[in-house]
Q: What sequence folds into this?
């Protein structure tokens, strides 16, 4: 929708109107006994500073609207020149991303997940990187969103699953004791109707057993179309794939899904772990998550452990596993292989650079 305000005295008046629209939109609608919610993201461009033609004003309000969406929706944003610049960079990056797969520029790093308290390798998480030809190694936060918007996440996601399976196969043939590998799924991938078919196909094609694979999904992927979600998760679980809930505690979903869905692991989000030593609330929340998970027979991984003190506290709360820079950053295959070799003996603490 486009709203034209032709009699404002200053830019801030547009903000007031935008807020009124947002307030009106968030009112729930009851349809067939279901409470439905909608929201809005509003971009504002002001004549004449942000453009003197209707085309420019429209384009710039669009750029601002995307910024509002990135900011978590349900907010408004003004257009600025910095925004324009970053929108341009994003556009160029999006074009390059199209070629990233065919040019073999994507790589997987692996981060070890350790057992508590005996500090043995439990599993690894595959984390995507992009070796852009003209830039430094680009982290997933910079391009996964873009890949989602453009649909490229589907072939990229398949590449990740296939690469992990081939890696497992290679490790097996080299005689390593192979840990479970966790793969991150994006929302669009999870909703894709061909997900199960594609995964089965990749497992078969590469001769990989499903018991080596964990899929990490987030709470927000569980809320819409519950029946479909239950079916998908059941199917994956019956194949032998583990399901892990990533960034646990940051979504707004109801806890009842923990009972309904076959979930093997919860990963406590880094934001709770970060201040666990100093913030009593975080400490209490983490203790409650662990107690709840254990009573539902779900294992818990604490993410983002950076210090011995954090580890100590989580150990006292009987958390099952941990992952974080304290033990190791995500590292390239060759470095994770050093840990696999050692996993037969004992792993010494290592601070890898990655
Ligand atoms: P995530 O799944 O929550 O992954 C954990 C992120 O935390 C990783 O960032 C990891 O490098 C970082 N991390 C691990 N330990 C620590 C720590 O002790 N301190 C701090 N500050 N950070 C730590 P990374 O690799 O940049 O990945 C960011 C996100 O990108 C991931 O968050 C995940 O949501 C997404 N992602 C990564 N790979 C893939 C993929 O193959 N597919 C999809 N769809 N998403 C991916
Ligand atoms: Ca993850
Ligand atoms: Ca996470």
A:
């Amino acid at each position: 929708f486009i709203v034209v305000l032709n009699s404002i005295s200053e830019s801030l008046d547009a903000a007031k109107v935008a807020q009124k629209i947002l307030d009106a939109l968030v009112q729930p609608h009851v349809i067939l006994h279901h409470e439905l919610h909608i929201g809005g993201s509003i971009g504002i461009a002001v004549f004449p500073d942000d453009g003197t033609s209707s085309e420019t004003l429209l384009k710039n309000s669009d750029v601002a609207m995307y910024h509002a969406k990135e900011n978590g929706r349900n907010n408004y944003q003004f257009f600025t020149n910095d925004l324009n610049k970053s929108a341009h960079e994003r556009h160029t990056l999006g074009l390059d991303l199209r070629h990233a797969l065919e040019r073999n520029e994507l790589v997987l790093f692996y981060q070890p997940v350790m057992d508590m308290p005996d500090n043995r390798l439990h599993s690894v998480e595959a984390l995507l990187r992009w070796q852009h030809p003209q830039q430094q190694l680009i982290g997933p936060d910079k391009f996964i969103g873009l890949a989602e918007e453009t649909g490229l996440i589907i072939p990229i996601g398949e590449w990740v699953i296939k690469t992990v399976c081939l890696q497992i196969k290679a490790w097996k043939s080299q005689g390593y004791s192979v840990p479970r590998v966790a793969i991150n799924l994006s929302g669009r991938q999870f909703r894709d109707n061909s997900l199960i078919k594609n995964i089965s196909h990749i497992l078969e094609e590469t001769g990989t057993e499903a018991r080596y694979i964990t899929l990490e999904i987030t709470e927000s992927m569980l809320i819409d179309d519950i029946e479909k979600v239950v079916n998908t998760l059941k199917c994956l679980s019956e194949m032998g794939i583990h399901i892990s809930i990533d960034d646990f505690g940051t979504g707004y979903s109801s806890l009842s899904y923990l009972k309904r869905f076959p979930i093997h692991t919860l990963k406590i989000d880094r934001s709770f772990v970060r201040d666990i030593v100093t913030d009593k609330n975080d400490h209490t929340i983490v203790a409650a998550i662990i107690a709840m998970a254990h009573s539902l027979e779900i294992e818990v991984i604490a993410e983002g452990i950076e210090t011995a003190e954090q580890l100590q506290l989580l150990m006292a709360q009987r958390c099952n596993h941990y992952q974080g820079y304290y033990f190791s950053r995500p590292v390239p295959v060759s470095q994770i292989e050093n840990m696999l070799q050692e996993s037969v003996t004992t792993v010494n603490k290592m601070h890898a650079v990655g």
